[in-house]
Design goal:
By secondary structure, the chain is an alpha+beta fold. Helices cover 18% and strands 60% of the residues. The chain is elongated and about 55 Å long.
């Protein structure tokens, strides 16, 4: 009986951990960035940085029967960053992006689907030698939608994730951005998902990564 209680407690802790760990990590990132901004300078500059570019994504899904599906998508991505930058090059930004395009399934379906993807994140960046900017980010808002067609039902996934990126300063205002995202989905919606909105009810794993390159202009 005691072993059973210990097992139940362990499962409860693991479930709670999966819920609060992303929130805790995002909070730590925000607090740390705010602390650095405060100690570096009280005269940090406000910057607005719209961008537009091209993105490639790969979605890997394994259902409860171990059937694997891969979805490759590519298309345009655009968005903006709004944040503060200190005189020594430390920056704290809010990031938002929207991408869309065609989704190609493996195994193949007769009619490719379309997708849309919106991302919101908090980023902490460091500029080096006025040549480049390196940044890490925590994705706090993440919605990925595969539209339905004659073969594939609509799916809308949501969750969090992480970012890493590099920006090269081409001029004082223009930058070339390379961005890599790892997405972690916990919720799913659609006509065929009726027993609940937890991803674990339908899939063993849902893994989405993407890479993008874009040009940005800083005001």
């Amino acid at each position: 009986m005691r072993k059973t209680h210990i097992s139940e407690c362990s499962e409860f802790i693991a479930q709670r951990r999966s819920t609060w760990m992303p929130v805790l990590k995002g909070t730590i990132l925000t607090v740390t960035a705010t602390y650095f901004m405060n100690i570096t300078s009280a005269n940090a500059a406000i910057q607005v940085e719209p961008f537009a570019g091209y993105q490639v994504q790969k979605l890997k899904i394994t259902d409860l029967a171990d059937t694997k599906t891969e979805v490759k998508t590519d298309g345009s991505v655009f968005g903006a960053r709004l944040g503060l930058r200190s005189p020594i090059g430390i920056s704290l930004d809010l990031y938002g992006s929207y991408s869309n395009g065609k989704a190609i399934y493996t195994p193949a379906v007769t009619q490719p689907a379309k997708y849309t993807h919106t991302v919101g994140a908090a980023q902490l960046g460091v500029s080096a030698m006025k040549v480049m900017k390196i940044y890490l980010g925590y994705i706090f808002s993440n919605t990925y939608r595969l539209e339905s067609n004659s073969v594939v039902p609509e799916q809308k996934l949501s969750g969090g994730g992480y970012q890493a990126g590099l920006g090269l300063f081409l001029t004082q205002s223009v930058s070339l951005m390379a961005n890599y995202n790892v997405h972690q989905f916990t919720k799913i919606k659609g006509e065929t998902f009726q027993i609940g909105d937890e991803v674990d009810l339908y899939y063993k794993s849902v893994d989405l990564t993407d890479a993008s390159i874009a040009l940005s202009y800083t005001f």
